[in-house]
């Protein structure tokens, strides 16, 4: 493919949506993008939603087609900037969309407002940077400095929606992990903590949103645990401790199985995403998520309304003693023990496992017991001549005896 000629004019998105059935070139800010997937033919495709100063409320969707995944735009972050040339504006299902045709269109991806570089981190082989590209890039980055990115929502409308969001909650399809149900499809806004290969071309996502998933019943008999114990985690091997120590210590970490190696390219750790049409099920008394053929993933900005709300919920839980406890623990059961340090905040099992003073914990203790319909499993590792230290405090328990008449 020959190098493209330097573009003489870039359309604003507001002007582009009026140029139906015409080829246009434009530069915009990426607010959302989806996972690569196979088209009905032999191509791969993905969708990007763009906005600029002229078109802030809705965004323009561009469908990109390519022969392989690595030739699609692999966006690093919402808020990055993309340059498209020779894309066609169409009207489809009562919506204006743009189509990137692999034979004539080109693209280039640039870092967003935090960068001053004009070198694309990914581009079509025929793309070459022009003077006009630099001018439009500079203008967009300057505009972004005073704009809070939120999937194409203007700052004034964003504040109104944030107030309504806090008063009414999010849409019915978007659920936090604390409200999921076995076998029910839902949308999840969460952070990807890590991505691990569990077998050939099979990957596992570790997702978190700051809330606690509902407890599950364990349908097994306690006397069978010695001969055929239930697995303690869905992954075949334990995560490295340095990875585990980066996890938040409050909130459920949901395991989600991904069976397409190509999709792993898009799942990058520590990104906030919206997973559309996710389903969870009980497996060995643990929650397990699955991506369906209809599942879509959108990468979100840290300034997205739902992301801000999830972060707020988590931040509110940390300083208080009771909010660190899972919601399923309330109302609080009768206390059968007392501690000399009752004023200290509750610690989660993740607090113990990631504590710097228990890094040499090697052998395993296992305590399985049933409380109502919940299975509570606590596993600690200890080796001979190794003592278990919990936050360097000696916690002395004394029995609280009931008095009988």
TrEMBL record:
<dbReference type="InterPro" id="IPR012340">
    <property type="entry name" value="NA-bd_OB-fold"/>
</dbReference>
<keyword id="KW-0158">Chromosome</keyword>
<dbReference type="InterPro" id="IPR011564">
    <property type="entry name" value="Telomer_end-bd_POT1/Cdc13"/>
</dbReference>
<dbReference type="GO" id="GO:0098505">
    <property type="term" value="F:G-rich strand telomeric DNA binding"/>
</dbReference>
<feature type="domain" description="Telomeric single stranded DNA binding POT1/Cdc13">
    <location>
        <begin position="10"/>
        <end position="145"/>
    </location>
</feature>
<dbReference type="InterPro" id="IPR028389">
    <property type="entry name" value="POT1"/>
</dbReference>
<dbReference type="GO" id="GO:0010521">
    <property type="term" value="F:telomerase inhibitor activity"/>
</dbReference>
<dbReference type="Pfam" id="PF02765">
    <property type="entry name" value="POT1"/>
</dbReference>
<dbReference type="GO" id="GO:0000783">
    <property type="term" value="C:nuclear telomere cap complex"/>
</dbReference>
<dbReference type="GO" id="GO:0032210">
    <property type="term" value="P:regulation of telomere maintenance via telomerase"/>
</dbReference>
<protein>
    <recommendedName>
        <fullName>Telomeric single stranded DNA binding POT1/Cdc13 domain-containing protein</fullName>
    </recommendedName>
</protein>
<keyword id="KW-0779">Telomere</keyword>
<dbReference type="GO" id="GO:0016233">
    <property type="term" value="P:telomere capping"/>
</dbReference>
<keyword id="KW-0238">DNA-binding</keyword>
